[in-house]
Design brief:
- By secondary structure, the protein is mainly beta.
- The chain contains one helix and six strands, in the order E-H-E-E-E-E-E.
- The strands form two sheets. It has a three-stranded mixed sheet with strand order 2-1-6, with helices on one face. A three-stranded antiparallel sheet has the order 4-3-5, with no helix packed on it.
- A hairpin with a 4-residue loop joins strand 3 and strand 4.
- It is elongated, with a radius of gyration of 20 Å.
- Bound molecules: zinc ion (ZN).
- The site of zinc ion has 7 residues, from loops.
């Protein structure tokens, strides 16, 4: 048993919520910068996009957040919006390849 055998990161799957304030494009760019020259070079980043829902209980309708605003309040009545989902920023899966055993190509 080689519990701590050297391994290389092959793939990571990350859940990114629509309301998590993370831009998938920027996350991919940052990922390339992180794994770019290191031992995990070539590791794939998979983004699982999770749309969110912002509901105004007063208007009884789904609302959008104000453009450029971080405050989640209803633009029509000023009530706080109820957030359902979309706030995830989680690593879901990590796939490791034992060092020296990965298939070429
Ligand atoms: Zn409202």
């Amino acid at each position: 048993m080689r519990a701590h055998a050297p391994a290389r990161l092959a793939r990571a799957k990350v859940a990114v919520g629509e309301l998590s304030a993370v831009e998938p494009d920027l996350l991919s760019f940052a990922w390339e910068a992180i794994v770019g020259e290191g031992p995990d070079q070539g590791a794939a980043l998979e983004i699982d996009w999770r749309p969110g829902r912002q509901y105004c209980p007063t208007c009884r309708a789904d609302k959008r957040q104000g453009e450029g605003s971080w405050m989640r309040i209803c633009l029509d009545c000023g009530a706080p919006l109820q957030i359902e989902g979309g706030t995830e920023l989680d690593v879901i899966e990590i796939e490791l390849v034992p060092a020296g055993e990965e298939n070429p190509g």
